[in-house]
């Protein structure tokens, strides 16, 4: 196993033409988090304009499917890969991707985003083939790098992340294939399955970091540990993913509400174990805990949606996608951006406001449609999301583009 040289400093002066040495290519979290923040603002702004009637939609696929793809496979996918490729270096001691390779990987992801809007007369659905091609290259390259790092270090404890990212890649390709075939309802079922895969990833990562961050942030001597519950949650989540997938694509008669109710119960219990009143005073902690509470509540509401018309499945699902995945991503991006650039884990008021805006976006999108006009709730939620990620970029973009404050590489 190759050892990382953590003592060699970055060059004091980097010329513009030395592309591979730019700080932004130091580790995967830098360009991937930056790209995710920009996509979160631009794609949701466009979605808001479409909802408001100020922008037209010209593509052959429904705008809702583009929105779902970019938020899940584009935004959440790139953050997940950025986090894993960065964390794997810490877990294994094996150098992660950086320099020109990371630059090419980032460019591939950017091209995939723009390929949706390629329109050539006489070549039907060329844009979808281009998106699929570039997305596949990006996924496979990222998974290959992650796999190589974990296998070199024989980090069996982390092999699960190879499986999860591979399944997300498979869902992405199946989704695009179904859109090409205009099987739109099946494509939406694949998106929902991929959301559950992302929930699995969030659950595993949260189980490792939330108790640790809480104990460290509040100066508690012992962190909460629940290995048996963690294992039960893992296998229950895998079962729920398989059960839901089968119910949507093959066996419509399967009852799935009870599966979500069971998962919600387990996550509720774990969030109670982790809870400490002191987290409310620390933005980097309350945001993580709120995101995890949103997961338990969201899964419970999803379960209710199968038995009652009081809440719609898609509304409940958005408490998970916005409140859990969105807020957890935002909180983790801020924390990793600070921690991996040797900056103190203290954030200004504007970051706390960003957390509140995304939390508000989740509540508005999931709960207000039952009270307000659905369309108005969607627009307000999208606006809050855009404002939250603008604040993230304002604070974190300079951090992601500049070198570490201690002068070390990474």
Automatic annotation (TrEMBL):
Transmembrane segments: 32-51, 72-91, 126-147, 159-180, 186-211, 232-251, 257-278, 290-310, 316-337, 349-372, 378-401
A UniProt-annotated Pfam family: NnrS
Alphabetically ordered keywords of this record: Membrane, Transmembrane, Transmembrane helix
Protein name listed in UniProt: NnrS family protein
Gene source species: Pseudoalteromonas lipolytica
């Amino acid at each position: 196993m190759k050892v990382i040289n953590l003592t060699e400093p970055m060059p004091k002066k980097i010329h513009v033409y030395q592309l591979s040495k730019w700080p932004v290519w130091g580790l995967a979290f830098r360009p991937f988090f930056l790209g995710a923040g920009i996509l979160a603002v631009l794609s949701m702004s466009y979605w808001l304009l479409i909802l408001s009637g100020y922008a037209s939609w010209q593509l052959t696929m429904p705008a809702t499917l583009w929105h779902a793809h970019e938020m899940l496979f584009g935004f959440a996918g790139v953050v997940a890969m950025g986090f894993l490729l960065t964390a794997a270096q810490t877990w294994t001691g094996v150098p992660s991707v950086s320099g020109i390779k990371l630059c090419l990987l980032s460019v591939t992801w950017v091209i995939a985003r723009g390929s949706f809007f390629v329109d050539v007369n006489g070549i039907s659905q060329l844009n979808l083939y281009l998106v699929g091609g570039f997305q596949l290259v990006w996924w496979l390259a990222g998974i290959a790098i992650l796999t190589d790092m974990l296998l070199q270090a024989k980090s069996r404890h982390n092999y699960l992340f190879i499986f999860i990212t591979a399944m997300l890649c498979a869902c992405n390709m199946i989704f695009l294939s179904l859109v090409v075939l205009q099987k739109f309802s099946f494509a939406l079922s694949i998106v929902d399955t991929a959301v559950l895969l992302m929930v699995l990833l969030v659950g595993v990562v949260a189980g490792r970091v939330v108790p640790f961050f809480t104990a460290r942030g509040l100066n508690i001597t012992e962190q909460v540990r629940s290995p048996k519950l963690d294992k039960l949650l893992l296998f229950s989540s895998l079962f729920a993913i398989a059960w839901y997938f089968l119910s949507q694509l093959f066996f419509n008669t399967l009852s799935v509400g009870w599966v979500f109710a069971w998962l919600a119960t387990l996550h509720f219990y774990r969030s109670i174990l982790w809870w400490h009143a002191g987290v409310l005073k620390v933005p980097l902690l309350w945001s993580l805990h709120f995101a995890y509470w949103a997961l338990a509540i969201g899964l419970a509401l999803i379960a209710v949606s199968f038995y009652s018309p009081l809440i719609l499945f898609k509304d409940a699902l958005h408490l998970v996608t916005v409140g859990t995945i969105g807020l957890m991503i935002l909180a983790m991006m801020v924390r990793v951006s600070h921690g991996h650039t040797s900056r103190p884990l203290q954030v200004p008021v504007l970051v706390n406001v960003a957390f509140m805006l995304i939390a508000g976006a989740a509540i508005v999108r999931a709960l207000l449609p039952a009270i307000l006009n659905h369309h108005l709730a969607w627009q307000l939620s999208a606006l809050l999301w855009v404002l939250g990620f603008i604040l993230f970029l304002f604070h974190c973009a300079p951090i992601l583009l500049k070198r570490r404050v201690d002068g070390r590489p990474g």
